[in-house]
Structure formats: structure tokens, C-alpha cells
Design a protein that fits this description.
The structure is a homooctamer of 252-residue chains.
Chain A lengths: L2 H13 L4 H9 L1 H4 L3 H12 L4 E3 L5 H13 L4 E4 L3 H10 L4 E3 L4 E4 L9 E6 L5 H13 L3 E5 L7 H6 L1 H5 L3 E6 L4 H9 L4 E5 L11 H8 L6 E3 L5 H16 L3
Parallel strand pairs in A: 1-2, 5-6, 5-7, 7-8, 8-9
Antiparallel strand pairs in A: 2-4, 3-4
Helix pairs in contact in A: 5-6, 7-12
């Protein structure tokens, strides 16, 4: 319910079409229901290219397909993360236009094209980090950003990184995806001017403790201007990056 | 702002005293301001015997004294936890009626007596746990509960506990305070019918890791009906217990 | 053995039917056997609607079925938690009246209806938390409580929570089930007057560390009057809640 | 060495003033010395209003004062974080114009005013979090941002937050500072459209484990678009926020 | 090389059959080879009833069977712990006399009966702890001890424990096996005079963290005279207990 | 209350001197009071040479002195662990016969000499471990054991250990005290036949994490027959060792 | 790009074939591309006998085979670690000369024999540590070292170690592989003069926490001159050892 | 006892001066005493320039001075690490020639100059890491190595590192000292051919957890050929490095 509906209600009270008691009852629950919030949600859909994201981990293929169908029926773009082949099969059966970004483990159905603005660079340390990097890249694209992919430039061979530095510097926000010791975030954070979002990955073994090593390293980065999201959370980094890029694009 | 004020506003709209635009503006921000929330706070004060508790740790004596004075000026009972002698000195200078519960590290000023209802038993394992136990006991009393203190009945000499079991069973809610291995919570949880709130303490050394040992033990209690609060959080346990006892007292 | 049996034994000694030596031998082991304890157990059964709960995790379907059959043969209500389909199949074969609460992973067989008293609200943050929430809800119902289910009201869209606040406030005790950052417990703890029991869940990934994140958050809740149970322990929360509600119901 | 110097060298080769061997030797070590890097540093100073920040923790007052003097002598703005009274005394003696932001524990000396652009909101949960919040706020101001301070709006009394929501939404980037369970980051992250940077603080006791509780909660935030910095790192959050706001201001 | 061989060597020197240089060279490396150590091993076999124990976890059935066969060929008793059905099948094929203690997950082949001396009590908290308890019990028997099994006497129903206290006190050493909160070790440690060895088990879920909860609780036991072995290490506890009981039996 | 008193009561019932109701009431509370438990405590005093040990950490010198005086007045030997100079001063003022074992941080007052039986070896890795080793040694002596001290034989210079092996093997129970990597426990556990109790110490820095490193190493010892007590718990190890040695001495 | 190419470029400038602007542009990006770095890589291949190692964990057999084929096509030796049978099958199909070191889980294809220099001793504590030890041994051989294998000499039977000490001392660098309590590293570190590299393994259970126990023990080794690599990282230890041995061999 | 004494004993047997039985008894305990081990220690002193290092942490100034005096009296070089001013005062009073390396917290007394061979580079990330770096540098010099110090080249400004790369590559072994995220070790490990020893420091705050962050990062380094020592263990790294450099120097 938006401000127009509130005013309509008040006009009804003024005109005597609605009793004060009925209006009071309606208004009492108002803030808890939807003033503005639903509007915000609609705004979000318009700007980001999707209304609600389906996190597939732990959901049945059938459930995922039904949610996707409901969103598509409402004319909204669909984005389903952490999706496996089975989930894609179920969605595809109901929504033949759905696309599966295999590396990113994302199912996408575009109902309304989102015009691209600005640029996010997604940089990854090793090839094993690519699924998380692709989750970030595909999500950022779905949110209306151009994406520069710079993969496999880990610090063990730092010349590879320098060769790609111009490409990285060309973006308005940089997402750095790295497992093991996560040093890449500090190195890039020290080389660029733009905001840098670090995504630790669970890649590694032994004392990487499922990504803890990279997470702690990134939190302790000696480069200022680096912020961190959860282990393997490429999606969250991309949403953050898209918010930054939209600000830069001056659209709002 | 309550329902009466909303109706008054609507009557104003109906009567033409307030424009629709003004009323809409007012209503839009309504939920974010104060409907009911402030009222709830006043209710809390009436029922619990204190409005706001001062957590002294990390505050200067002077700051504590000023907050206490402001609360007392409003006619509210004052409770200041984790208070040391210096804090008490500062409060005492401004509020001569303030009392210092030394064992509990609590400063209290009673402006309006709260009638006592129901009973909370506070049980502690060792003498070193007494500061936390007293924090719980004094807080529960300040919240309007009678308190049965049963101290130094740790499981290493379990006959001491059995000798006090009737006293413990006489309460409507039991707070168990224990450090080290925290076994007392499980033993009592298995012996009584009433809700049991476990407070791990930081008492111990070495592999007690500052109370982690007792905390984990209590969370894993094999006795159903045991819930746990933060390490050394006697205050929180007492507030929970007081809520339970008030329910039992039927006052609400 | 209850007080009546003790008196009968003493009458036998007085009458000379039992020798002092025999009676002494019998009495010596008495407290370690069953005075009162068994009575307590019987009382528990009458009040809670079940005598002993079967924790199925790690047990074979055949074992579960046999325990269930033994309880049912004694006329007691049966509650088996963490049960999978195989366990239900085995129980169903022996006890055709058994019902499987699939979402809750609970098998139930009601031999004697328990009259419902009072109300527990079970609130969950996300859809993935529902199995734990249902474990709590079904258990609370089996213990004789009415249950208000309020699901999927996580803090990321806090208006959903406010829309259900009246329903939550109508309960005498609130169980809050949340994974990931577990913030819902603090938000609800700050909004309600009633005791609040927080259940962290293992839902999440990466730095949720199997529920540790939600557990720590709930233990550190800035809202007083929140107590916590083990990760995923919907059952334990419900037993605690039922004890509180029974107190409130004044039945004891 | 910048591009002009490289060209000068090449002109020398072309003119025969420098032998190919000498030039090759010079160029070989070039990238490891300073091409562009120093320039970048100069750019940073111009844009951010400070060249290098002094992290005082673990440094002697005399050392801090000397570094500050050297920076000031170069005409650069000085910012010294985690500074105590003794450090301020030492700096003040050499640089009488230095100002001490006591709450923020920051010493500042402005040599060249930085024009303010855009706005960062700094939101804190409790009064104990204010030192970290002020470190963020003063740093953001030094970086050329306007700052909206919204303090003491923790989730235990969530109406306080809603009353300030418009102020928070007015900023282009929001820094959320919270200890204990850190729930405020998730609540705000779910209410606003803008990028949100969460700063866990070490405020708390027991199972807060020096800020670990808030850190994990923020990393696991169910609200997308929240990124996290190190515990108590108000400075780092502000640098990140300033980078975002400058992007939004379109200055670059 | 034993003392006899050393003397033989010396006789050779005395007789002039071996040069001093050769003997010196031989003696120099002596301690690194086998003086006494092998003898010690033989002594161990005679007293404990087994020479070397096969820890099956991570070994192939075929490997286990071959080691068992080699030991049996040497006339030694065989004990293989953490053995599954497949391992038993492989051993049985080569050594038809081998017995499989299914609950204990132990394969045993007795070549020479060991006379039983003294008594170890093995006490467990829950039925799920029985595999570890049986590993302890069967190992203790193989080491020549009588074993009293007292199972399912966890502290949630402490009367069950008291009913068995005489049986427990009759032993010279008590092994306490418990998971979850591990409180049973402290309760028994406070009730008995004899040495008590606590075995934490990995039984539990959530915040039991694979046995960490019970382990920490047992290490922090408020009862003096309790020592702890690794999580699930029933074998190690039994070897320790057997050493104690043999001392008590005065056989050495 | 012992068996004689129960029989006396029954005789009273038989004779009609005590009504059945009175006797029943008396018997009902029996187990929770003191059957045997107090007796056990008296037995403990007689055998161990001390009744109750004062753990001084966290207690005021005055409190310690008063407890010591009360124990001495009852004719019991006094042992106060973790005592500093101030505590000793306070005790000495009241009990001039008290002795301070400075290295062990133990105050002792012998009222009744305990005859020494058997032998405990206390072995320590480094000189920094001596306070914990001495706590064990002095406690074991107070419990009536002879003690062989073997200090500074850490594995970094393993020949020092071999030179003392006979002395170690001469004891009936060995206490191994080591910090850092705690390897000494495994090496000794593999060399001796007797029960071995390992005491990790908090000696070390960095990744020793306050003794965690040594604790984990000792729990994972590859030598069977090693059990572990809490970090720095020399007292607990000595009580365990004394129980073992008394068993071996055949006195009971 | 090497120094020759730089000189060629400069000659072009001198000769007027290349404009200063073009050369400047080319040189500006130079360091970020490949000066020296590629050369270094070629040097590495010549010296170590392999150019790039394939870490198979998490890669598909097909991917592994393709990378191997590409390396072989370039005439480089191939080393693929953490390879299972499926990976070997895929590689073998493309490169029939490939050999599978089953115990080491390494696939190797030798295109150019590397002459062996110096000697590395690989010492392991238990048979379960052999896969990691073999990963180290085979890698060291592939790097051009001779390898002395000394397996199953854990400290629980320390005489086995002493019997092999001469063999260990004969090497220029010693790799110690151990799980559980990891004590072997300290014992060997104290006995030898040469650099010692410790590899903790994930062998163990319970409180070994996946190798954490051995890792911490090794980091806290009381023997100076011991350095540690990641849990199970036999490969990394071997590369470090090979670098040391090559230094000793004086080849560089 | 050395080889000469063994031969003397054997001559005695040959000559009939010593009985075979006496000689056998003497020889039996031989290996446990001192064959060779003491010799090894003497070799160590000759080669490394010091016999035994005094770790001052936790020792009294007086104790330190006495040990130093005893070593000096034996003509050995003295090295005392983790020494504060008070310790130096005490040593200086007894040994006026002692020098205090303030930054390194090391007291040194050179009795016999050790000729320098080879070179170790000590590289540190930040100025706060210098005490640990100096501990490494001074120790390496005392062990007879030349040392190249390269300080304050952390990855946040990676051009500083490249400017010093030649200096680093000139060493035969590189020690990398870094706190916070410890990324420097990976970057250097990827740039150099020589063995690299990483020393994590406890520099940092919040989620650095006392050096854990840097430690885990270094253990997970993506650069092969990096080994790690304990947090802040500059001494241990230097001993390891000196062993490597001596090997390279070909002196042994």
C-alpha cells in the first residue's frame, strides 16, 4: 500500500464513505503490512532485474520450479542460485526459456531485459574459485552491471595479475574471489582506488578449515577499503557491488 | 501514539480540520515513530519495578551516577549491574538512598516497592560462582520475585545437593549457576519439574576457556527443559525467570 | 516405590510379618532404586502426554519400532523425534495408528488425548528452518499446548514480522527458530513481554559453522529475557516452553 | 618515474646521448621502482585529504609525533587513529594546530580543507559502540564525506531505529557498528537500498569472544548487500564508504 | 639384543676373539637397536594377553587379515579395534577361530587364555555410548581384567546411577563413558574413591561439536582424581585401567 | 546415617516406640541427607591426610587464612594450592606452623603425619613447567606418596630423558608435565609399563594458545595408557596418582 | 619479454624504426607483462624437472588429462598430485607413458630425466601417514633429489626410530610426517643437525580435529630448526626440501 | 661418555681388570647416558656460535644473569631472547661485555667471533613486525650468517617490495615476517627461487586472534616452498635459516 492508497482512504473518510472506526482499524495494521515496503520491493525489481532470488541449497527441484513459475507468472526475472542439474531440469520443464549458467550454478529466466550500466570486475585467484566467481559475475549481470572477468591471477605468480591490472582498474567496483590464504584481496586492495569486496572461498584443505583461513586473512587485510562477505558468497558480493555501481551510474 | 490518537486524527480529517495531505504525511511516518512502543516501555516499568538497567562495565563512575540520577528523578527504581566500589561511591554521592549489593556487584535504589510474587531458586555449584548467582538473585528480587538461595552444591559432593532438593523444588523456576564443567544444570534439570535456566560462569582455568566448557555442557544437557544464557549473565537469567514466575502468578 | 509402600513395609515390621533385618536390607537400597523418582515419572506422563521420548538419530528402524511398541503397550503416548521414513515404516507396521509428522520428522501415537492449555508461539526466520520449528511445534502440541505457527518472518524483511506481531504476543511463551545470523531472537525479545526461547539452527553455510554463528548471536542477545537451547534442538525448546505454559495455566 | 621520464630516456637513446645498454639496464629495473605507483599515491592524497594514516596502537608518543610532523611538513593532512591522550600531548607539542577527537581516539591536523561531497550514515547499536562509530565518522569526514550520526538504536528497542530511518536512508552508504549479537546490520540491511558496511565491535562479554559473535552474525546476514570489516575497524569501514560516496558524487 | 648377548660379546673380547675396536663399534650403536626394547615388548605380551593391537580405521580388510594372521602365527592373541563386518569377514576367512564383538567393533582371537585379575567397571551415560563402552569393556577383558558393565545411567535420571553404585564401587578402577555434556564423570568422580578414567564420546549434535563439549567438561571436572582420554577412545581408557588394576592385583 | 541407625529406627517401629507415619517421613528423606556420604568424607580424610583442599585462585588472603584455621582446628592437615606470598602471610599469622612450598605455590600445615607408601615419578619437560610439576609433587607427598622428581628432560634433548629412565621406571605411576608441544607424554608413555598421567601446561606462546597445543597432543598420544588432566592441573594429576599408588600398596 | 627484446626495441628507437611514443607505450606496460617472470618459469622447469604441477582434488578426470597432455606436448615433465584411479585412467588414455604412484596418489610422466643430487629423508610416524609421506617422497624424487624412506617409526616405540637414525642423519634435509600428536617432529628435530620440515597429517580421530592437534604440536616444537607446512601437504614439504638440497648441492 | 671411554672399558675387560658382569652392567645403561649426544652438543656450539639459548620470558633477571654467567665461564657465546631492560641490567652487572639488541629484545655476549658465511634475507611487512624481524636477524647473525634486512614492504603498497626484490633474491634463504593477513609470504614465495620461512606475528587486532589469521594464511600459502614457524618465533626461523645457509656454504 502506497501513499496514494492512504490518501484515497482518507478521502473516503472525509467523504463519509468509510467510517472512522473502519479506517482506524485499517490504518492500525498499516505499517506492519506494506506501506512503502511493497513499493520498495517493486522499485527493487525495476532496478535490479529480479524481485526475489531463490537459494536452492536444501530445496527440492519441484519446490524450486514452482517458486520460479510463480515469479515468472508475475512477469519478474528469475534468478536461482546454488542450483544443480536436477533443479534446472525441473525449472526447464515448466519454463522452457530458462537458462542454466553451469559454472555459476545459477538458473536464470529473463522476462524483461535490464539495461546494463557501469562495470564490476570479478577477479579470482585460482581455477577452483571459478564457481564462486561465476556466481558473482552472473548475479552482477542479472543486476544490470557489465562484468569484466579476470580469472586465475593468484599471487603465487603475481605477474599474471599485473598483466590484467588495467582491466581491473577500469571497473567501478572490484570483487576479489580467493581461497587458501586469500592474499589476493590485500594485493588488489593496495593497487586500486575503487571499492573492493572480498569473497573468501572454501577452496583449500587442511588448515584452510573450510575457508576460515581466507576469511580471516581478508578481514585483516592491511589494505584499507576492503570489505568481506561470507565464505563462498559470490551472490552477496555481487548484490553489494551492483548497489555501488548503480550509485556511481548516477541513476538514483 | 495509540489507537485513540489515530481516531482523533481521522475525526479531524472527517471534520475538515486537517487536510488529507497533512494526515497522510502524519500517518506515513507513524509506525516508525512510537505507536505503542513507548507505552510498552511504561508497562514494563510498572510491572518489573525498574525501567532501564545500567550495565556499568566500561562506563565511568560519573556517567553511571548521572544516568541513575535521571532515572530516579523520573520516579523509577534504579538497578545498576557490574558496578564496582567507585561506581557506588559516585552514585551514593548523588543518591544517598542507593544500596550496594557487594557480592552481586549491583547498585539499587528503590523508589517504589514492588510487591513480591512467586519464587525463584538460585542454585550455584561453587563459592566462586557466587557473584554471578547473587547478580541473578538480587535482580530477581528487584523484579518482584522471592528468591531461595542454594549455594555451593556442586556435583563433586552430590549429597549436598540432595539435602537441599526440597527447597529447590519449592520454586517455580530454577536458575543454575555453574562454571568448570557445568554438570549441575543437567543433574538439577533431571530432578525437577520446573523450567530451569542455566548460567555458565567463567570460573575455571586451562581448558575451561573462559566459560566455554560450562557453556557447551549446558547447551548439550541431556535433561530436557534446560535453557541457557550467556556466560556470567546472571542478570539475563533473572529477567527470564521473573517473566516465567509472573506468568505463573497469574497477574497477567 | 511410593510412600504407601514404605508404610506397608513398616506395618509389616510392626506386625512382625517382616523381620527387622529384611526390612533394613530393603530400605537400604530404597533411595537408589525408585522412591519418588518413578512417581515423578508417572506424574510426568500424566501431565505431558508422553512418558519417554525416542531420539531416533543413530538408532535402527527395528529398534525404534520395538521401543515404541513397548511404550504403547504400557498405554503411554509415543513421541519419536528425528525419525526418517524408514523408521516410520517400521513403527507403522507394529503400530498402525502411528502418525508421521513429516516436516517435524516426528512419529506420534496418541493413546490418551491430552487436553490443550495455554499457547506457545513458534516463530521461524526462513523456510529452511521449518523442520526445526515443526519439531518444536509438534512437541509442544504433544505436551498439551496450543501452538501458533509464525513462519518465514526473518529480519531481512522485517515488515513481515510486524504484520504477525499480535499473533506472537498472544502466546504465553515464544520459541524463536533461526539460523544464519540468528538476529530474529533479539528483535522479538525486544518486542515482547513473554519469555522467549531461542533455537539456533544449522541452516547457513561458510562462516555459519554449522549453527555456531546463530548460537553465539542468540547467547549475546541484547534483549534481556532470552534463553537459548542447543543448535537444532526444537524438541528441548518445546519441553521448556510447555513447562512455562503449564505454570501459567495454573494447573499446578 | 612517470611516463615523461620514460620518454625523456627514449629521446636520449634516439639522440645517441644514452647507450642502448645503459637504457636497457635502467628500464629493466623500472617497474620495480616507482612507475605510476608514486603518482597514484599523490592522487590519493589530493582526493582523500590525507596521504598516510598513522595507526598509533603499539607506537610510542614520540614516534607518533615525529611521523605527524614529517607529514605536516609535506603539507599533507594528518590523521592518527587509536591515539590516546599521551600521543595527543606529544603531537600537540610539535603541531599546535592538531585537534583530538576524544571519542574517536583520533588526532587530526587539517592542512588543506577537503570539500565535502555526499553523505555517509554511521549507525551504532549501543553507547559502548560509540568509540568505534566515532572512529568511522571522523575518518569519513576527513575523507571528504558529510556524516549523519545515528547512535544507540540497537534492535532490543527497534522503534528507536524506525524513528531514525529517514535520516539513514538519506545517506549514500551506511556504516552499521554493533557488538554483542550484531543483529542491527541485518535489520538495516533489509530496510535500505544503499550499500551497507558492517563493523562488528568487541563490546560484549562471555560468549561474545571479543567480537567473534558479532563478526559471524554479520557475515551470515540474511540481508544481501552487507559487507563486513574487521572487529572494531571503524577506520577501514570509513575508507570503504568514502570510496563509494566519491563514486556516487561523480567526481571521478 | 639382550643382556646375554652383551655378555657374550664381552666374553669374546676377554677371550681375544673380538677386537676392542670391533666390539666398540658394535656397542656404540647398541642402544639405538634393540637392548631391552624387544624384551619389554615380550613382557607386554605375556602380561596383557596381546602383543600389538590392530587399529582398523583406514585399513583395507585384506591388510587387517594379513596382520592378524602374522600375529596369530607367532602365537599371540589378536585384538583388532574399529573393525567393521567386512574386516571380520576377511579375518574369519584366514583365522576361523576369530570372534567378532559386534557392539565393540572388535575382532578377537585368543591363542592363550589370560587369567583374569581385579575388576574394572565400565559405566556409560546413554545407549548411544555403548559402542565406545564396549570397546573399553572388551579391551579390558582381553587385557586380563574382570569387567562390570553399568550402562544407561546418565545424570538426567540420576536415581538409575544410585541403584548401581555398589556395583561401581566394587571395582578397582572405573571407566566413565559419556557424550553430550559429559556430566556423568564428575558425578561418579565425586562419589567413588577409586581412580576414574573419563571417555568423552562424539554422541550429540549441534554444539557438542563432535565430542568437544564432553571432552572439555571432563577436563574441567570439579571432582579430583578424574583423568581423560581422547574422544571415543574406549581402547586407550581400557589399557590405562588394566595397568592400574594389574598394579592393584600385586602381580608385579 | 548408616545401616545401624536404620535398624534402630525399625526396632523402634516394631516396639511401637515410633509411629509408622513418623518412621515413613524419616525414611523418605533419607537418601537425600547423608547415608554414607559423610562417612565417605571421613574415610577420605583418614586415608589421604587432608580433608578439603583450598583452591586459592580468586580468594582473598583473609578468606584463605580463615578456612585454613577452621580446618586446622578440626585437627585436619591443610593444603592450599595456587597460593601467593600474600596468602601465605595471612595463613602464617594465624597458623605459625604453616609451610610455604614456593615453587609449588602451595601452603601446607601438617597436623598428623601420613606414612608414605609407594612412589610417584613427576617428570617435567622444561624449567618453566616446574611450578606445575611441583604442585603435583607436593600434593602427592601430602597424599602419602614418595615422589621422584625428574625435571628438565624435554624431547629436544632426548638423551637427558634416557639417562633418567631407571628412576622413572622405579615408580608405580608417572606424572608427565609438559607445555609447548607436549611430546614428552607420548615418548614416556611408549617407554614405560606403568600408568601415565599427562599434565599439559600453559607454557609457550603464539600457537600454544594457552596450553591447547599440549592438551591436544596429549589427548592424541599414540602411546596407549596415557590419560590427561586439565591444563596446569598438577593437583588433579597428583590426586589421581595417589589413588593409583594406594591401590598398588595394597592398603585397601 | 627478456632483456634481448628490450634492447631490440631500444635499437629500433635509436634507428628511428619505432617512434618514441610507441616505445614508451610498450615499455609502460612491460613490467606487468613478462620481463623475467616467464624466464624464471623456464628456469624453474629446467631445474626442478617439472613446470607446473596439477593439483587434482576437485578437478574432473577429463580436465586433468587435458592439462597433462598440454604440458607433455611442451616437452615438460608432468606431475599430478591427489590423483585417484579415475584420473589416472584418463591421463593414461592420452599419455600411455604415464606412471601412477598409487600410495602417493601421484601421476607422473617423465619427458626429460632429471639427474639426482643430494638426499632428502622422509620419515613417517605410522602406516596411516604413508600416503602423505609418499606424496613427499615421489615429489622430491621428481624434483631431482634422492630420497631415503624411513616409515613407521613413531615415538610410541622410540627404539624403532633410533635404529634408523644413521639413515636419517645421512640426508641433507629431513621431512617428518606425523598425525595424532605429531611428537615425532620434535624428537627428530632435537636429534639432527639438518633442517627439518614437519608435515602434520589428518590421521587421528576425536580431538585430533582433522590434523589440528599435530599442526599445533609441530608449530610449538621445543626443537629449534623445525618449520611446518599445511596439514597433509607432502607436496609442499618436498618442494621446500628440494630447494634446500639444491642449495647444498652447490648447483646454484 | 664417548667412544674413548667405551674402548677403555673394553681394554679393561680384555686385561681382566673388569669383570664381564660389571662391564655388562655398565654398558647396559650406556645409551641412556651420553654417548655421542654430548659430542653433538659440542659440535653445535662450534658451528653455530652459541651452545644454549636463554629464553627469558617467564624467568627472573637474576636467573637469567646466572645462566649467562655460567655459559660465559665455559667460553661459550651467550644469546638471550625475549629479554627486557631489567634482564639486560642484571646480565650487564655480571658480564660487562654483554650487548643489548633493543629492537630484537636480545642480549648477546660474543666470546668467540663466528666467521660469517652465506646470507639470509629478513623481510617484514610492517614497522610493528620489526621486533620479531630483528629477533630473527640478530639470531641469524649470531649463528654466523650475513643478514639483509628489508623492512616495511607489506603488500598494501606492493611497489615497495618490488623495489627491494634484487636484495631479497641475493640471499640463500628468506625469512618473511608478517602479521595481520600474512599475505607477504605468499607473494614473496611466488617471486623467489630460494627456500622461504614464514613467521606469522601477533600484530593486528580483532579477527587477527593473536596471530592466528597470519598463521593460517601462511600455512595455506598457494606458493610452494614456504614453511612456517610459530607465531612471533623469529628465533626459530633464524635457526632453520642458518641450517640451510650452512648447507649451502658447503662447510659441512
Amino acid at each position: 500500500m502506497g501513499i496514494l492508497e492512504i490518501m484515497e482512504l482518507l478521502e473516503g473518510v472525509k467523504a463519509g464513505d468509510i467510517t472512522v472506526a473502519d479506517a482506524a482499524e485499517h490504518l492500525k495494521s498499516l505499517p506492519y503490512e506494506d506501506i512503502g515496503f511493497a513499493n520498495i520491493d517493486h522499485h527493487r525489481a525495476l532496478r535490479q532485474g529480479f524481485a526475489e532470488v531463490i537459494f536452492c541449497q536444501g530445496k527440492q527441484p519441484g519446490q524450486i520450479a514452482q517458486i520460479a513459475q510463480r515469479l515468472a507468472a508475475a512477469g519478474e526475472n528469475v534468478l536461482a542460485t546454488r542450483a544443480d542439474e536436477a533443479a534446472y531440469g525441473a525449472v526447464k520443464a515448466l519454463l522452457p526459456g530458462a537458462v542454466y549458467h553451469r559454472d555459476a550454478r545459477i538458473i536464470e529466466l529473463v522476462c524483461a531485459q535490464v539495461p546494463k550500466k557501469g562495470c564490476v570486475a570479478v577477479v579470482s585467484a585460482g581455477t577452483a574459485d571459478i564457481p564462486v566467481a561465476e556466481e558473482a559475475a552472473v548475479t552482477a549481470e542479472a543486476c544490470g552491471c557489465n562484468v569484466s572477468r579476470v580469472y586465475d591471477v593468484g599471487v603465487a605468480g603475481i605477474h599474471r595479475l599485473f598483466a590484467k591490472l588495467d582491466k581491473i582498474k577500469g571497473a567501478q567496483c572490484v570483487i576479489v574471489v580467493a581461497g587458501m590464504e586469500g592474499a589476493l584481496a590485500s594485493v588488489i586492495g593496495g593497487l586500486i582506488e575503487r571499492p573492493c569486496i572480498a569473497v573468501p572461498t572454501s577452496i583449500g584443505y587442511g588448515a584452510s578449515f573450510g575457508g576460515l583461513s581466507a576469511l580471516l586473512a581478508m578481514l585483516n587485510s592491511c589494505a584499507a577499503g576492503v570489505a568481506v562477505v561470507n565464505i563462498d558468497n559470490g551472490f552477496g558480493a555481487a548484490v553489494m557491488a551492483a548497489k555501488i555501481v548503480r550509485l556511481a551510474a548516477g541513476g538514483e
